[in-house]
Amino acid sequence: MKPVIKTNNPNFSSGPCSKIPEFRLELLKDAPIGRSHRSKIGKEKLKKSIDMTKEILKIPKDYLVAIVPASDTGAIEMAMWNVLGQRGVDVLYFESFGNAWANDIKNQLKLDNVNYIFSEYGELPNFNMADFNNDVVFTWNGTTSGVKIPNGEWISDNRKGLTISDATSAVFAMDIPWKKLDVTTFSWQKCLGGEAAHGMLVLSPRAVERIENYTPNWPIPKIFQLKKKGKINLSIFEGSTINTPSMICNEDYLVTLKWAESIGGLDGLIKRSKDNLNILEKYVEENDWIDFLCKNKEYRSNTSVCFKLNLEDEKIENLIKLLEKENVAYDCKSYRDAPKGLRFWCGPTIEKEDLEKLLPWLTWAYNEVQNER
Predict the structure, then answer these.
(1) What is the pLDDT of residues 155-197, one digit of tens each?
(2) How far apart are CA 1 and CA 77, in angstroms?
(3) How far apart are the C-alpha atoms of 292 and 94, rounded to whole Å?
(4) Does the N terminus or the C terminus of the chain have fewer Cβ atoms within 10 A?
(5) Phi, psi of 224 (to 5 degrees)
(6) DSSP letter for each residue of 147-166
(7) What's the rounded Cα separation, in Å, for the pair 91 and 230?
(8) What is d(CA 234, CA 67) in angstroms, rounded to the nearest whole number?
(9) What is the pTM assigned to this prediction?
(10) Which residues make Cβ contacts (< 8 Å) with residue 240, sequence separation at least 6?
(11) Are strands 231-232 and 227-228 parallel, antiparallel or unpaired?
(12) How does DSSP classify residue 300?
């Protein structure tokens, strides 16, 4: 029968993701709108975002953190344009965004000494093939494939090259082994549901050394420039952003970081996300018409959870339309380059009660479209 109880929050998009519970615009009333981001209050607010990020994520004190333009895409491109080219590169990818970074290394930076190590959607490549005499580029979590890297044990402590990780749908919901990573990027719009357009760049001392002692053969656009007079521009990592940020978006991020602190910090965020995944894992065990795109539980993402269904593509589209028509689940279609199916965001801003209310609707919608002629 058609369910009666609907989700309180039907937003299951994988980016921009759902806002924190009980979000309201009034929470942003302290944003210094109309003020310069280079004013005293502007820089203080931006620096506070950086400091709280480092504290909540337990980023080492000697790592640098900056707010940069153009979301995670801008951050990872900035990283690659600044550090790659000194030595060979190994690119490990298993979904569309990792593939995009591989294509940019090949077609934009035009590097020759590159090894491409990849796997199909739902799987991880053989990370043992990575050569740590080279720089190694990879995504930590496959936002479009539902596959995550379970740990950093495969990364050498004696590496000669840098490790460069796009971790945008992992940070704030998974344990990140910072000492194994030299360059890490993410954005506010993922795990904490912040507004889009701002990226975060995290640099280890080894990455800073590379930037200061190596100049790429290609010109660096102003929006990517991290050096000043041959040294890392430390002001960028203290709140003086390269270009104009949104003070409203920054205020939203600060509000969200305070919420994260209130639920137990990183441990609380990870627990919420894993609890959400557990609900879906139990559902899949009880229904033989739906399965995870990622079969290996150890590699299964607890944020961007991807499913395959025993339905024709057209019926999958109709199922998604039904959920949206009933206002119980929005934006749950698999990514355009991924296998046809469903994708539900299960990061820490999602309430498990909404997932529990959603599942009867999912069963109902499946039965409705299955019986279509």
Answers:
(1) 999 999 999 999 999 999 999 999 999 999 999 999 999 998 9
(2) 50
(3) 16
(4) C
(5) -105, -5
(6) EE---STTS-TT-SS-EEEE
(7) 28
(8) 12
(9) 0.97
(10) 38, 43, 46
(11) antiparallel
(12) B
